[in-house]
Design brief:
Layout: H1 2-22, H2 26-40, E1 43-48, E2 62-68, E3 74-82, E4 85-90, E5 107-114, E6 116-121, H3 130-141
Antiparallel strand pairs: 1-2, 2-6, 3-4, 3-5, 5-6
Transmembrane segments: 6-22
Keywords: Membrane, Transmembrane, Transmembrane helix
Amino acid sequence: MDKFWWVILLISVFIGGQWMMMRPSPREKHLMLLREAARKLGLQPKLIPPPEWLVLEHKQFIACYSLIIPTAKFAYSRCQQQQGQWRCMTGTDLLAKTALIPQASYLLAIEAQANSISFYWQEEAGMDVLEPIKAWLTTLAEPTRV
């Protein structure tokens, strides 16, 4: 009978270990909450392979958060952060219209086309930066509204 309880204990430890491994890590939980907060603010988060024009050290998926502005009409433009400085790579310089916000340091690039404006980032910041970034993107879109 003593062996029976040892076997039961061993099986329960094995099953409990497998269950613990299935749980999301603290980083995954943070990313889930961050993306859910973005959805509540009207941003559309998605993970995509990095675009060819975005040079990164690694080829992992990157977060792209898009803001749809139905009344905006953007010509295609793209601004990218290179060596700590923002540069317009294609199209009109969106960033010349308004001042940069401190939260822009978390972003890698901004891309505007048709009625959406998107930003690429590594999701390193917390949820508190999403609202200022969304407000800033909205102000970037305002001068281009027709």
